[in-house]
Amino acid sequence: MVFLCAFVVDPTTKSTKISQKAQREHHNIYPQGTPVMKPIYLCLTLSLLFAVTAYTTENTNHTLISGSFGVAWIDGDGIIRLYDGESVTTPVPGVKVHAILATDLLEEGSDQLIYLDDARKSLHIHSFETGTTIGPFGHDVRTMAAGRASANETFPSLLVSTFSGSAFRWTKEIMGGAWHPVPGAFSHISRGRFDLRSDLDGFAVVSDGNVFIYSPRWQTYSRAVEGKNIVAVLTGNFTTAPGDEIAMLDRDGNIFLYSGRTLEDLGREAVHLAEATCLAVKRNPEGLDTLFVLDRLGNSGHYNRETKTWTMYGAIGLGSSRVPHVSNIIAKDNESVFALLSGNLYEISEENFRQLSWLPSPAATTHSLQISGKTLARYRFGNVPFKPYIDELRTPSGKNILRDAPWDYLHHHALMYALRVGDYSFWGEAADNGKQITIQFRSGSNFVESELDWNTPDSNTVLNEVRRITVDQGDNVTLLDWQSALTPTIDTVLGGDHYYGLGMRFLEEMDNDGRFFSDAGAHDREIVRGDERLTRCRWMAYTAKVDGQPVTVALFDHPSNPIPMTAFTMGDAGGPFAYLSATMNLHREPVELKAGETFAIKYRVAVWDGEISPETVEGKYREFVR
């Protein structure tokens, strides 16, 4: 196992016992007169994650971890999300946190989720065995790590440092009592085995660009590497020599490996790595550990210590000249490697990048569409990874009918519009998919108008869109109109799969016992696969239940559209979920467009409370086309 923390040390000492002359005051549970070291001014913003066999993992900024419960991370809203291999859940709803960690502090035989709340910076422990959370303990905690730092411990204790510059050790026996003081004031550490004569953990630490090795057995620090402007360290068994080595990042994103007295430059430039931002170690109980890297552009790969070569995987799910927000990389259970980039969770390998989750960033901008101060819909358009969309659409009584980014189909964004343009699909959200970028935006109480560039993965604009969305409310009905004018910048072809177009993913509770009907009569038209049907119609409606009460939603074509609507439906015959989209049969008859030629579409979505008759739907359709 490795731990990543940092600490504050007197950089003028070469190899010395920790000075206990410097004292400072502490708050509440923290004891008075705890020994500290002289402060330095080191701000480590890189994210390093790793997996272990004896303990679980943590990282320098504690935003992505793995444990026996799965992979957990802090989303852009400060909420903990958890991926257990099947679904994404929220283990501690409504609590904003700034750091998380996984280890078995309570000796339950499985990991707990340890987190620091964002308000008081207090410690909390969430047990998946009991489903309960204990705490808060203390406050002002800056960072934390787990390790065996006392001969009396069989399970790891928790090492914490505070914003006031002190460090302590917490065990379950302490609970609400006084915490044990620890020499120094750690802020970043990586745990390793350096003293094979001791059963205690050792720690590689960074101070003022220099690397030290701390021995809890002797409470002394020895200098390992100096003068390299190192900002982060990560330990692992990368060679056949006994004990662990130390992987290091300097301020320029270069990678080094320290083994005993030898410092080796791993040469990122040779494989065209940009500045490295994250390191991870994948533990191998039967052989050498593997060192992984993630650079600021989202490129990833691993290093083979025996051949001294890099194997690169390419860019993860981004493919843009824009610099992505690269958060973390982590290896779990000697099986999978995960990365967190731009709000997306990926599972990565040499052959594949698999997107597992997307959750809206807090910086994502929304606009509520209202009538007389009542919100009928909401448009999400700022800092969305791939496309703007309507993420809420409500009945007159206020029931939302849309589901955004379910774990099994994360690219299903409630009510969205996407096609294939030339060789690029704008429906999916993978490395080779295009993105809809908002260039201009204007809004009023009941409308939004925006100009979008449809960009390829390498940021070339292939199409411009002018989009206008408006809402209105009639007698027991919410109305949303979607208009888009598409103008390609090059000669191209509009196409896509049989469900591409203006699509709606419904709430999970609407997936069961729903019923489709249309102006075309019985819902028995062409089956494409499973229960997926294509129906040529003027309107298609769906009735299901929300909160135990029926609602009805209808999708209207408009006669001005260049191609009549073919409604795509699924979910009315035991399918996995319910879906409705307005397509133009482009999978069979793609449309060729010249550069500068405009292709305009117009649709209406109507939403009612209750089970609505075909006659009522037909009446509202006629009002739309009048």
Write up this protein.
- Helices cover 2% and strands 47% of the residues.
- With 626 residues, the chain is mainly β.
- The strands form 12 sheets. An 8-stranded antiparallel beta sheet has the order 38-39-40-41-52-48-47-44, covered by helices on one side. A 6-stranded antiparallel beta sheet has the order 35-43-50-49-46-45, with no helix packed on it. Strands 2-19-18-17-16 form a 5-stranded antiparallel beta sheet, with no helix packed on it.
- A hairpin with an 8-residue loop joins strand 20 (230-236) and strand 21 (245-250).
- The longest helix is centred in the last third of the chain and has 12 residues, at 614-625.
- The protein has 2 domains: 6-358, YVTN repeat-like/Quinoprotein amine dehydrogenase (Methylamine Dehydrogenase, Chain H); 365-625, Distorted Sandwich (Beta-galactosidase, Chain A, domain 5).
- The protein is built from 1 helix and 52 strands.
- Residues 1-61, 317-327 and 358-363 have low confidence and may be disordered.
Sheet-strand content, in percent, reads over 45%
* Rg over CA atoms: 28 Å
Biggest beta sheet summary: 8 strands, antiparallel
Level-1 CATH class name of the largest domain: Mainly Beta
Q: Structural class, from secondary structure content?
A: mainly beta
* Principal-axes shape call: elongated
Please give the CATH architecture of the largest domain.
7 Propeller
CATH topology of the largest domain: Methylamine Dehydrogenase, Chain H
Distance between the termini: 69 Å
Poorly predicted runs:
1-61, 317-327, 358-363
- Please work out how many helical segments DSSP would assign: 1
How many domains make up the 3D coordinates? 2
The helical percent reads under 10%
CATH homology-level superfamily of the largest domain = YVTN repeat-like/Quinoprotein amine dehydrogenase
Number of strands: 52
Strand order of the largest sheet: 38-39-40-41-52-48-47-44
Mean pLDDT: 78
